[in-house]
Write a structure and sequence with these properties.
6-stranded mixed beta sheet, binds zinc ion, single chain, 6 strands, 157 residues
Length: 157
Amino acid sequence: MLATTWPRQRECVAFYGKPGTGHTLLDLPYPMRLAWDPHVTIRRITIHRKCADSARRVLECVRDHYGMEKLRDLGLDLFGGCYNNRPMRGGTALSMHAYACAIDFDPARNLLKWNHTKARLAKPDAVRFWELWEEEGWVSLGRCRDFDWMHVQAARL
Ligand SMILES: [Zn+2]
């Protein structure tokens, strides 16, 4: 059974509130690096408080399942962003990042338009990573739509 049922994308403003509200700091279960400046180690991220505990549980399981060496190899310590108040790429509806309920990993090896033939996180050794998110009800655009393999969100399509 899922721990939480997340809102559908179009219901996010009712569930999460206006962009920029409801934030908390999540202490990361393992250190991450900024994807755009990997010399910078980060130990906490800004995220919506309604999905913060769930994200922490998933990342604890990711750490325990893979260990630091393997998760670094997969790029699961490369933080590509969470809160970002912007529209969806190519659209006018708000991105799930505007609600701080989406996280990107290793964007350089999982470009937005890449499908499973090129994206690093579409490879078989990343399947458990996605299953751990899905066990908490999170949605992977890569797994559902075969693009944006960097992205996971606490909102249903
Ligand atoms: Zn994203």
